[in-house]
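Page 47, continued from p. 46.
Same chain as before, 117 aa.
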Amino acid sequence: MSKLTGIVMMMLVAGAMALAQAAPQNPQPSSTPNATNSVPSAPAVQPDPAKQMQLDLDQMDSLVNNMATQVSFIRDTNMSILLNTNVRLWTVLIRDLRLQMQEQQKGLRPAVSPPHR
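Result:
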């Protein structure tokens, strides 16, 4: 049972590390009372939603692959069945989201008419 706990903890740590890497790194503002910011801050650049979704799906795909790799180390049959089911579920969901994104991108592109002769 301790091996199972160790593997689950390792998966949780790996997931937390992946989330920490994906989180934006914001520096802490200076806490000195004399510090004044007279320069207006530039408006935050909004990322392209399609690009962000693609990055998120790539990260989810990577996490699912890590989970699938870790399943082989689990000796508990019930836990391995559960994790294999989760891997299949997330794989289907990621695939469907990618297909949905492709369909939306096709719909957003203007139709290119053939050149007139």
